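Dissemination and training. As part of the outreach component of the grant, students in the summer workshop were shown how a complex can be specified as a set of sequence lines and then modelled as a single object. The example used during the hands-on session is reproduced here so that future cohorts can follow it. Participants entered these lines:
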Amino acid sequence: MEPQHGDRPHLPGPSVYPIGFAAGIACILVGLIVNPRIVAPIGAAIAVVFGFLWARAATTEFRGETVEPVEPERREVSPTAEAGAVPAQHAEAAMPEPAPGDRFPRSKFLEGATLGLGGVIGGLVTVPAIGFMVLPAYIDQGYPQVDLGPLDNFTEGQWFVTSFFMHPEQGEVSHRTAYIRNNGLLDGEPSFTIISNRCAHLGCPVQPNGPVQDNQKKDVDGPKGQRIALTPMIPAGGFGCPCHGGQYDPEGNVTSGPPVRGLDRYEYAIENGRLKLGKPYSVTQVDGVGKNARIHKYKLTGPGQHVDGWEQILYPLQPPH
Amino acid sequence: MAVATRNRKSARRQKVEAAINYPLDWLEERSGLVGATKYFLFRKVPGDTNWFHTLGSATLTAFLVQAVTGVILAMYYKPDPNSAYQSIQHITNDLTLGWLVRGMHKWGASVFIILMFFHMARVFLFGAYKYPRELNWIIGVTLLAVGMLEGFTGYLLPWDQTAYWATVVGINLNGTAPFLGPFLADFLKGGAEIGQNTLTIFYSMHMLLIPGLIFALIGLHLYLVIRLGVTSPPWSREAAGSDWAERDEPTTNGRSGLTRPGPRGNGENG
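and obtained this result:
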């Protein structure tokens, strides 16, 4: 039988020097608070002396001096007790001894309890953490209504590059752009065409194919600091995407390139003579122009995803927003 | 005279060796780490390994460079939409040697990806993915995918126009995956729209989640390399694998369940 680790002699022998060293350090720390001039140096002296003794004792063997091995302490066992003691594995078993390979029910229970309790504890920790990682992206998501200012700013029949901060508190990262045209009155109500600049291919910003009159840019103060800017433009050639060459006509219908559908549009409302931007929605195509347009409207869907045709079966579910 | 000098030197040398060995023996007795390191470093490899076998270590080195420079960059980078770009400009233009560490991280990223492909090409062309190393090929492919994800998440962090729009396109590409794509895109964006959470999500994934995964996968990868040994090149007449290289000795290392592949091209199989 292999000797247990505790049976071997200690080399070097245990000494009290480490304790003295620790006491010296403690004395320094207390002295620094109580009396840095007298108590702390005393502690330092104790630490230095015991540190030196400790180092000397620890390196005796290495320095080539003979070291007396210290026999480990053993508890004295009286001869009678030794004779009477039965090794545990030969003692009378409280349970019937199982055949080799069998396991005690107790060990099976312990295994099950360890795995079961461990699983429960792990689940209690992991499930909320994973939930916090994933769920905020899907819950309480939405599009705030953005006040784009008085209707008078939108000249009838004129396109405007309209940029605004969708979430002013988030700063520049919420900068969005829409292309807006006042179509004039339809059944007594003002009609607007509001096209999102998010390309229906992979989400790059589409640009007007025509002059943008930057010198006539007009800043409008949104009531919540949305930093709205209106710039007149003439999208004579519709809209084009710089990334992969998608092309759209002025109503947002795809004329060329990879986009799978037309440009998204925004819902809008008119309250107290002000234009309010609502939720965006997806559009496959638009028949007609301006206020007479017939819009094929779908729930808002990410760029590159089909909302009609057979490919729509690939995107049966959309996150809730 | 000469003998005496040599003896004196030898005695001093013995003393130096004892001084070096004493702490090593202390460590070995308590942890076995010295033996483990020796086992790891002084493995038997086939005699005709060549420089192509260093591509894996080169990839590992490239990753370690990325890890170290990334840790240092994280000390100065601010993952906030309103200050990320300025903090990178600060690192590059103002801080001493910042340009160098950022450059190492930026270009080292490409080096890491390129070396992964070279390493993969070596393994493929040498047939080193075959039995019993299929699992290591699978782990390697996972490492490649996770390494690309590391590149994708890191690309956003400079927060300039290129980074922003490349990430918009990348996220929307993920969104076009069938069925769960839209949900994946929203998770990456941290919401319905790209916003302030997107940058911090990418930052956390780039510097904590994915590097942890890569370290774990590299550990598994290396474990299998050590266990199964290095393959000899296809033109070798030696057996593949470290301990199997000595054919006449029985495997005494207790690795049960493994058959011993014979040397390739030994004439019996054509």
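The helical segments of chain A are 17-34, 39-58, 79-84, 105-134. Students were then asked to discuss how this feature might be tested experimentally.
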